[in-house]
Design a protein that fits this description.
By secondary structure, the protein is of the alpha+beta class. It has helices at residues 21-28, 37-45, 89-97, 125-138, 154-159, 180-185, 189-203, 218-236, 243-253, 295-310, 344-370, and strands at 10-12, 55-57, 60-63, 69-73, 75-78, 105-108, 121-122, 143-146, 163-173, 207-212, 257-264, 267-276, 280-288, 315-320, 331-341. The chain has 11 helices and 15 strands.
Amino acid sequence: MADRESQFVARLAPGVSALDAAQWDALARADDPFLSHVFLAALENSASVGADSGWSPLPILIDDEAGNLVGAAPAYLKTHSQGEYVFDHGWADGYEQAGGQYYPKLQIAVPFTPVPGRRLLGTRPQHLLAAAEAVVVQNGLSSAHATFIADEELREFEQRGWLIRGGIQYHWHNRDYASFDDFLAALTSRRRKVVRKERKAARDGLEFLVLRGSEIRPAHWDAMWDFYQDTGSRKWGHPYLTRPFFDLLGEKMGDRVLLMLALRDGRAVAGALNLVGADTLYGRYWGTSEEQPFLHFELCYYQAVEWAIAHGLRCVQAGAQGEHKLARGYEPVLTHSAHFIADPGFRQAVGQFLDGERAMIAQEMALLRKELPYRSDTAS
């Protein structure tokens, strides 16, 4: 493939697991566990992607003149829009009603992971984007999509004319709190009372375990798998991840895995699975086998905040969407995706849609900021 601005060679690989781990990780850096070779390879080796999943691994790679890997993008050929958390089903329906074929499409992303991060790894971001565009055009695909891209990468996509889409998540930020009570002191009096009431109700009759790395035993993974299956079946119709993925996660990622369990009479009744980054705790999956008021908030939000404070982390990201997080101290943040649409008419229609959506998101962000539960003298 050749970009108009300069000549370069790009290649596609059948998966990340086939690539040299050290070379990939040198580009991905160590701060984001989801971009690590071991995480992406675990998705492949557990058949969570590939096979009949609708996610066919197709990482885009750039080599320099000496054959060294200098650029990479985690990419997948998609035959549906599941597991992305940036919803383009309406685009697909509109394009196909007009006689086009939306699938397959090219997706630059970490599967099933709505975590903002770098998508253009290494030193050749423009070459990676040119290669993605060439894959679309040369293979007659409708589009390429890069989801949950890091803010610092926005200009790279904008430079090539990709359409930018916004979204909203809720993240908790650590403002040098010494303890959970210190964090509560930053909230309004009414919200402090509500949080304490919720935590008391959630913990009634339960014991809580916080496990990391080798502390997580097979029985704990069995319980978490059951919780994940139940939640996945209700939310998505079927769970995205396979059972072997959880074993590989525990085996390969060690201390980057944090499991929080709620026990009643020694039996696990709920769990929340987190991954630990350089300065961020990432809440990923949760489930329960019984109903207890506010248990979801306790395991997924309050305990995550408590653990982050105790370990000096700067942020907690508790997954996609969830306006209910706002009242619990999680603040609205903008997320971004970028979209290359091959058909000019379709691109124009999508662009017009995004113009209207962008205005609505800006209004929503302004309203959400006014609803933050922090005291006026502590709000940033």
